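// run 5 | inverse folding | seed 20
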């Protein structure tokens, strides 16, 4: 998939047909999803830290926002990693609850 390798392959094997294999395409896609998940997790952590600071400044207790499954945004983004790699029909009951 690298351009340098395409050039080498074309010069070495001019009549060959170049293909991109499924494994490497999936790997790139999963790495991209992982990057987005991590970025969103850091944003959730920053937002929670700001909320905690704001609550302290207002002398109010900090209450974290929870989803219907009881997870906070940072917990969901932490625990969702393996859900992204598994087929939904292979999820455990707690993973199914977490995803709803």
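// decoded
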């Amino acid at each position: 998939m690298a351009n340098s390798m395409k050039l080498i392959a074309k010069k070495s094997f001019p009549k060959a047909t170049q293909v991109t294999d499924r494994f490497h395409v999936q790997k790139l896609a999963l790495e991209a999803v992982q990057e987005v998940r991590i970025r969103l997790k850091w944003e959730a952590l920053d937002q929670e830290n700001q909320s905690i600071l704001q609550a302290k400044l207002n002398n109010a207790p900090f209450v974290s926002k929870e989803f219907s499954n009881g997870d906070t945004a940072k917990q969901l983004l932490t625990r969702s990693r393996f859900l992204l790699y598994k087929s939904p029909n292979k999820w455990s009951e707690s993973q199914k609850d977490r995803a709803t």
